[in-house]
Every structure is written in C-alpha cells, then in structure tokens.
Design brief:
The protein is an all-alpha fold and about 475 residues long. It is built from 23 helices and no strands. Helix 10 runs parallel beside helix 12.
C-alpha cells in the first residue's frame, strides 16, 4: 500500500468548498432543543462531569423533570426512582458524546460567564440556551464531518463521490439527527465511525505501531459514543487477519509489513484502545459497580438475532423501507466487491490496495450491525425517526453509493441511477417533514399512506410548512407534546 492518500485536485477543492458553504447556509435549520429522555441522558453526562465532576445525575434529571421537559411516560419512575447497583441514578447512555461535545460546551460556558452580568442575564447553570445550542450545533458539525470523511474514503478508493455525499447527507436519517434532534447520539456516532474507518484506510497495508495506536484510540472513541459501534472493528480485524495469513504463508515475499511488525502493531492498538476506553470504564464502574453496560440493557439482547429480517425489511420499521437510499448504497458495495474487475486498479491509483477487499470488509460491518440491531428486544425503535441505529453507517453509505453511481457508465444507467437517488432523497425528506409535523404515526410506518403524503400532499403544503419551520418552529412541538401526553 502506498498510503499516499487521495490526491486533492482543484475539482476536489471546489467540491469541498461548496460542501462547507452549503453546511454553513443550513445551520439555521439546526434545532437547539432537548426533549427526549435519550437526549437528557447524554446531556446529563456532560453537564454532570463539567459542573459536578461526577456521574451522579439526580440533579440533572430533576431539573429536566421540574421544568416540564422530560415528562414522557415512565421518566420519573425510571430515572428518579430506580437506582443502579451502586445507588446512583440510572443512565443508559455512554460518555462519548460528552467528550465530543465538551469543546463546544466550554465555549458556551465562557459565553455564559461573560453574558451572566448582562441584562437580561444568561444563566451559567449548564442548562440555559447557550449550553443546549452548543450541543446541538456540535452534533450538526460532527454529522457534516462524517459526510466529509465518507467523501474522502470514497475518493481514496478511486470513486467520484460528491453527488453520493450530498445524497447521503439529505437522503438518510443522518439529516434528522443533525437538524431536528441533534442532542441524540447519532450524528456523533456517524462521525466517530467515519473517523475510525478513515484511520483504518490510512493504517492498513503497513499496520505500523504508530498507526495502530491511532486506530485503537479511534476505536475507543467509537465504542464510547455508542456501545454497538464497537462491532465495526470486525472490518479491520478481517483485513488484518487476511494480511497476516498471507504473510505467514509467504514469509520470504518482499514488500509489506513483517509478522513481527504486525504483531507489535496489534499489541500497540490493543493497548491504545484500553487506555482510550478508560473514561468509559471508570464511568461504568462508578454507575454499575463493574466495567460494562447496565444489566437492564444487556438483558434485552438475544444474540441469535431473531429480528434481523425485520430490522432490514419490515414494512413498518425496516431500515431499507425507511431509507431506500441505503439499499442503493449497499448494492453499490456489493457491486464493488463482486462485479468490478478494475476496481482494484482504480483504488490502487488513489493509494489503496485490495479495494475489493475493503468493500467486502465494509459489507461485513453492515451485516454485523444488522445482527446487533436484530438482537435487541426494542428492534423496532418505535417512536424514533428511522432505523436510527444505522446512522453510524453513513460514511460507508457514501462509499457504496459512490460505487453505484460510478458503475452507471452509460447515459441510460446514469439517468436511472440519478432518478432513483432523487426519489430516495425526497422520500427521506418527506418522512422527516411528516414526522416533525405530526402527519404520520410516529410508532410505525404505513408505506402506502406515507408515499401518498410524500409525493402528493407535501408538494402542495411545502411552502406553509417551510415557513413554520423557519419562523414558527415551536408550533411543531405542540403536536409532539399532545402525542406524548396521550400515550
């Protein structure tokens, strides 16, 4: 592997500039608001560590409950009555988002200190507007960075990726968790996984100790943002095992790392992962009395993945039904792995050897996410937008979709692929609008009804809904509040 990285051409620089401009223009669409219990738990980690220097969340939960924000059914019983094995309040979230949000939160804290003496004063309590905005805009930035890293990965594999990056940005639930519900963990998760994959593409081929330290630290961050993201390590693990097997069979071959180098790299990466994961290990121990997730979480897992098919294809909850763009992207990964004999050559030209093996590894990671999501008792994620546990795959979807669009090498195929991508993007945006405006059942999809609303009703109502989103966004919250009160 040359490890020279993708060459930056003037065309690439122009595309990067336009992506940055588009992101800046889109920032007013970010919603700086906390209302869901998951958001409260992730935010509580940050606020408690920053102000109280602990992982005791009683005061944070109490604040959100007393202020009428966390009033969903069961919140008081779960988070203000139950305790963990160590007598602390339960928190099912992890510490990674707090780590990623902390630079933005620090800026907000400084701003709140300065503005505290102004009239009207800004509360320096960790809950006021600047703090919530810091988390929301921080998530949006991380979501955008996930797209940028996906774009870079695709280019490293010799693929033209700007249209694919734009499509995944707005054609998957990542957009919802960047702009509508950013205090959830998913935009941060997409970034952490994209960073891990980017480091892997840089490291693979040499498996140097220095590179593996970076891969281990990126893996630790990824696992601290969302526990299930740890399973993305399967891709680099397969890649490493193939290289090690080939080297063991032909020790005299020139070029590439030696087995000793790879062994040292593996040890270095493992040690870096352990060191990087230490904040989460300490938090687990303080909360649960042992290093590991709450038993209330682990007991929901059935590791034979009885819901794997439903997670993918259920009409009411399936990933590919919610996000048909993902089906196109996965088809692109399959095509890259199976059907493009010159893909290895194109990838090698951009600095990556064994491009088809990379595609196989990415497919293995997707399958492992299906397995994990299909093993969870709450696999439907009813009440949330999309099969949100797959937002972590955003960068991989950019690669797959870039592969599909690259394979469309005739005018007819290009037009067909472009039309399919456009429909899939509008489908996602239409569902976002329906979900936010209360025009659909938030507990389940009804594909025929959702399709009629997306392609027939919304085009007529779009100007009014866009006006409300820009100038009267709280009007959308009333419907959500009434729905929660009736459940």
């Amino acid at each position: 592997m040359t490890d020279e990285g993708p060459a930056r051409t003037p065309r690439h620089r122009r595309a990067g500039t336009w992506l940055a401009v588009l992101f800046l223009v889109s920032l007013p669409a970010v919603t700086p608001r906390i209302y869901a219990s998951d958001e409260v738990q992730y935010f509580a980690y940050l606020r408690s560590l920053w102000f109280d220097r602990d992982v005791s969340f009683e005061n944070e939960y109490r604040w959100f409950y007393d202020h009428g924000i966390a009033r969903s059914a069961g919140f008081h019983e779960t988070f203000l009555e139950r305790t963990t094995e160590t007598g602390r309040r339960i928190n099912f979230a992890t510490i990674g988002c707090a780590i990623l949000w902390s630079p933005f939160y620090a800026v907000a804290d400084i701003g709140a200190r300065v503005a505290h003496g102004l009239a009207p004063p800004v509360a320096r309590d960790g809950y006021s507007g600047p703090y919530v905005a810091a988390v929301a805009y921080g998530s949006a930035i991380y979501g955008w960075l996930a797209i940028v890293l996906g774009l870079r990965m695709a280019r490293r594999l010799g693929l033209s990726a700007t249209p694919a990056a734009l499509a995944v940005w707005f054609g998957t639930p990542l957009a919802f968790y960047m702009y509508v519900a950013p205090p959830m963990s998913h935009a941060c998760s997409a970034f952490a996984v994209a960073l891990f994959l980017t480091v892997w593409l840089e490291v693979r081929g040499t498996w140097s100790a220095r590179g593996m330290v970076g891969l281990g630290l990126a893996g630790a961050l990824m696992a601290m943002v969302r526990e299930q993201d740890l399973f993305f390590v399967v891709g680099p693990a397969i890649d490493f095992a193939v290289d090690a097997t080939r080297r063991a069979r032909d020790r005299a071959a020139s070029g590439g790392p030696t087995l000793a180098t790879m062994g040292l790299g593996a040890l270095s990466g493992t040690a870096a992962f352990a060191a990087g994961f230490l904040p989460q290990a300490l938090a687990y121990y303080a909360l649960n009395g042992y290093v590991g997730p709450s038993q209330l979480v682990t007991r929901k897992m059935t590791w034979t993945a009885p819901h794997a098919l439903g997670v993918l294809a259920s009409p009411a909850h399936g990933f590919l039904v919610w996000t048909p763009l993902a089906a196109l992207a996965i088809a692109g990964l399959v095509a890259l792995a199976l059907r493009r004999p010159r893909f290895d050559e194109a990838a090698a030209g951009s600095g990556t050897t064994d491009g088809r093996r990379v595609a196989w590894c990415l497919l293995a990671m997707v399958l492992f996410q299906v397995w994990v999501a299909g093993s969870v008792e709450s696999w439907t994620v009813a009440g949330a937008f999309g099969q949100r546990r797959f937002v972590a795959t955003s960068a991989m979807l950019v690669v797959g979709l870039a592969g599909l669009l690259t394979l469309a090498n005739t005018r007819g195929r290009q037009m067909a692929a472009g039309a399919a991508v456009a429909l899939a993007v509008w489908w996602n945006l239409g569902l976002m609008i329906q979900f936010g405006a209360g025009l659909m059942d938030r507990q389940r999809m009804e594909p025929a009804r959702n399709a009629y609303t997306t392609f027939v009703v919304l085009p007529r109502r779009l100007p009014d809904l866009a006006w409300r989103y820009v100038f009267d966004r709280p009007s959308f919250y009333e419907g959500v509040r009434r729905e929660r009160e009736t459940r």
